[in-house]
Amino acid sequence: MPRMKNRKRRYFRQVISVEVLADERPDFHSLYDVADAITTGGFSGQVEPGKIEEINAAKCAELLQKQGSDPDLFGLTESGEDLER
Q1: pLDDT of residue 50
Q2: What is the mean pLDDT of residues 46-61?
Q3: How open is the CA angle 53-59-64, to the nearest 5 degrees?
Q4: According to DSSP H, which parts of 1-85 are helical?
Q5: How far apart are CA 76 and CA 85, in angstroms?
Q6: Gap between the Cα atoms of 75 and 22, Å rounded
Q7: Higher pLDDT among residues 23 and 3, named by residue
């Protein structure tokens, strides 16, 4: 796809921390499992929302790839340039 000059879009990053207390060894494989155990199971949990930081398009593309997501999710190339749509 042709590239476009990066439009005036904004990207944000938030790292959320979850502490779980349990009387048996937890075995979570997803956020859904954690939420279910805290809300309906016998586990105690606390969520710390963490700070929200604004990031540029290049950093966003880098982090998307690190998470195993395609930068195209947000209309970006691998280097953070806009894809023409």
Answers
A1: 95
A2: 96
A3: 100
A4: 31-39, 57-66
A5: 10
A6: 41
A7: 23
